[in-house]
């Protein structure tokens, strides 16, 4: 039987082989024609000397439209003219599915296609090796995140995405009609991962979609992203959480560099792995930095996109791509964060990567009285959060955790220009399909 090979596994020693793929290009020179067949891993040249090929087959393979899905069987011959060092001389071919003409967008043409066109035809866009490489790297990133968490004693969990209340403020909640009741899509697994801290599962992580009704048109916000959340018990301070985030990110970056080498080469990118420990700046220090750069923020004011960028420039000049900013004003942070008593600050942190926030985390308020007063201070009704508060009444350990936007991490790692480059089918204010 003829073995089925791909462009990575095909060998001259095979003698004959079948390769499945898409017609990337055809060059018909009259006496000979060449078809470039592309599959997931690369391309193979199908060489057709007119005299040696059965006429019907020659015609079929020289007139088929570009990007058709085909299956070609032939002799594998050595060749010093091709990158693979071999070529396929066809003896049979099946047209699995013919591509319409014209294509909605090209695959190899060197024309700039608009992002919208690309996203509308994502399946074709992904036929480009560099676009596909990003998603192979994303897959690897998830694998590495899981590995790092398991190595550090974290249990993977899944929490509900349709909920009776939000965790991250009302402004970005998506409402769902749940059998006549109002429900919300999860903005984060925050409340559930905290409830689990009271269960004895003392280290948990989740990789799952988070939904934010974010009415913003930026290159770093979408309405659905994949969040990597972790929560750990019995911490002494938020330092324990930052140290864990650091260990995990470092493992991921090193793994990407090593195990993603092939895809990184396709993208022409290198990943710089920052040295440990990552520098830690207080929010107050950052205020000083941005003021020094001419941005006059008031005490307690959010650093904002511009402030983050200025701190990024400052740290970049010192050779630091990755750094923590900690002790944000408690007013800026959600109810579940622990206040730094006697100060306007809180035990919270962000991890910033090249001038952009990729993660927020901190120590949580595990003392029920203080938690309830924080909920009230934020203008929320503790009764709506009773299912959550219940877990704090029967022995809740000290705990803390983080949420990392996985696409933001990937975007910064690969220096991609837009978060949409890291999401197969992005959702934003104007995009709900495909
Ligand atoms: P930002 O201020 O940048 O909008 P945030 O502080 O509102 O982010 P958090 O609630 O802290 O976001 O969420 C934790 C992480 O989730 C963020 O650090 C970010 O990496 C990611 N994230 C949050 N919102 C979005 C979004 N709309 N699109 C993509 N990623 C997001
Ligand atoms: Mg944040």
Low-confidence stretches: none
Would you identify the CATH architecture of the largest domain? Answer: 2-Layer Sandwich
Coarse morphology: elongated
Distance between the termini: 40 Å
Number of helices: 12
Largest sheet: 8 strands, mixed
CATH class of the largest domain: Alpha Beta
Rg to the nearest angstrom?
Answer: 27 Å
Query: What's the number of domains?
Result: 2
Structural class by secondary-structure content: alpha+beta
Q: Tell me the strand order in the biggest sheet.
A: 7-11-12-17-16-15-14-13
Order of helices and strands: EEEEHEEHHHEEEEHEEHHEHHEEEHHEH
Please report the total strand number as a whole number.
Answer: 17
Q: How big a fraction of the residues is strand?
A: 25-35%
Name the CATH superfamily classification of the largest domain.
Bira Bifunctional Protein, Domain 2
Give the averaged pLDDT, no decimals: 97
What ligand molecules are bound, each kind once? adenosine-5'-triphosphate, magnesium ion
What is the gist of this entry?
The protein has 434 residues and is of the alpha+beta class.
């Amino acid at each position: 039987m003829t073995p089925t090979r791909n462009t990575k596994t095909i060998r001259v020693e095979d003698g004959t082989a079948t390769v499945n793929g898409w017609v990337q290009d055809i060059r018909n020179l009259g006496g000979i024609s060449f078809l470039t067949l592309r599959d997931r891993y690369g391309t193979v040249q199908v060489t057709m000397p007119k005299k040696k090929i059965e006429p019907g087959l020659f015609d079929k393979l020289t007139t088929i439209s570009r990007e058709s899905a085909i299956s070609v069987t032939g002799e594998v011959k050595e060749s010093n003219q091709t990158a693979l060092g071999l070529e396929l001389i066809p003896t049979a071919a099946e047209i699995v599915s013919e591509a319409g003409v014209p294509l909605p967008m090209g695959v190899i043409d060197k024309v700039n296609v608009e992002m919208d066109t690309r996203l509308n035809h994502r399946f074709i866009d992904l036929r480009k090796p560099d676009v596909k490489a990003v998603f192979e790297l994303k897959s690897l990133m998830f694998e590495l995140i899981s590995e790092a968490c398991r190595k550090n004693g974290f249990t993977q969990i899944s929490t509900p995405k349709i909920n009776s209340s939000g965790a991250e403020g009302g402004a970005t909640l998506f409402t769902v009609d749940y059998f006549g009741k109002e429900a919300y899509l999860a903005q984060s697994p925050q409340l559930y991962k905290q409830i689990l801290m009271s269960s004895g599962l003392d280290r948990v992580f989740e990789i799952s979609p988070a939904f934010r009704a974010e009415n913003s048109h930026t290159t770093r916000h979408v309405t659905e992203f994949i969040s990597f959340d972790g929560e750990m018990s019995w911490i002494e301070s938020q330092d324990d959480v930052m140290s864990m985030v650091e260990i995990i990110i470092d493992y991921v970056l090193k793994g990407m560099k090593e195990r993603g080498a092939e895809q990184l080469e396709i993208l022409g990118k290198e990943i710089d792995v920052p040295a440990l420990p990552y520098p830690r700046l207080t929010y107050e220090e950052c205020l000083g930095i941005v003021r020094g750069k001419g941005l006059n923020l008031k005490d307690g004011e959010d650093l904002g996109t511009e402030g983050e960028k200025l701190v990024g420039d400052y740290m970049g000049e010192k050779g630091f791509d990755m750094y923590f900013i900690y002790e944000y004003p408690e007013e800026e942070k959600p109810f579940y964060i622990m206040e730094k008593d006697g100060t306007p600050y809180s035990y919270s942190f962000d991890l910033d990567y090249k001038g952009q926030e990729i993660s927020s985390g901190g120590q949580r308020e595990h003392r029920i009285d203080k938690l309830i007063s924080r909920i009230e201070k934020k203008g929320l009704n503790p009764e709506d959060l009773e299912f959550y508060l219940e877990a704090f009444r029967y022995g809740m350990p000290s705990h803390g955790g983080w949420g990392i936007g996985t696409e933001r991490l990937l975007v910064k790692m690969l220096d991609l220009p837009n978060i949409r480059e890291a999401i197969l089918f992005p959702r934003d204010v104007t995009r709900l399909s495909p």
